[in-house]
Specification:
192 residues; 3-stranded antiparallel β-sheet; 2 helices
Length: 192
């Protein structure tokens, strides 16, 4: 005789299978949610790096500008020969520091590419071919960053007024103009 409330062995196995199936489904959904969270985190991290790239690039641009205009009295204005000259400008009796420290490229973590005019550095750019997330809304002097396909096209360069530009060493080269897009970068890794 069967007792009231007793469960048959077949029924117990069936309920265990349903619990196991529900647990597997829950683990699958948790994995999908985790993958989505990782994607959101990666995009957020890339946006943070873009903000840092804009800040650091502007620091370099301003340091190049300061170096250019800080010509010793009676001296000719020139661009820095390398990044180290921005850290310690030895054209003066007491070295001048146009840049606090040499910042690495926030996107790659490595060296910068440099834009040169003759022997001087007029700008820097990231060596990353990755597509930027930010595609519009850049203010002066970075309107040319709008709709660029790679970070290598985000060039942070200082272009002095035409009348004050240093004479280029290459007779075919022209100094960068004010309020125009900086020259295309020559692919040279930065060396401090």
């Amino acid at each position: 005789m069967r007792r009231f409330g007793a469960v048959s062995p077949h029924r117990r196995r069936g309920s265990r299978g349903i619990v196991l199936l529900a647990l597997l489904l829950l683990l699958g959904l948790g994995g999908i949610g985790l993958m989505a969270a990782v994607d959101v985190w990666q995009i957020t991290r890339q946006r943070e790096r873009e903000v840092e790239l804009l800040f650091v690039g502007e620091q370099y641009r301003q340091a190049i500008r300061a170096y250019y205009y800080a010509a010793p009295s009676g001296g000719r204005r020139s661009f820095p020969p390398n990044i180290a000259a921005l850290l310690d400008d030895d054209r003066f009796p007491t070295p001048v520091h146009h840049l606090r420290r040499a910042y690495p490229d926030p996107i790659t973590g490595a060296e910068w590419g440099m834009v040169r005019l003759g022997e001087g550095v007029v700008g820097i750019y990231s060596n990353s071919d990755k597509a930027p997330i930010k595609q519009a809304g850049f203010g002066p002097p970075y309107q040319h960053f709008n709709e660029q396909s790679a970070y290598t096209q985000w060039v942070f360069a200082f272009a002095p007024p035409r009348s004050a530009a240093a004479a280029p060493t290459n007779s075919n080269a022209k100094p960068p103009a004010t309020n125009t897009r900086p020259p295309l970068p020559s692919r040279q890794p930065a060396k401090p």
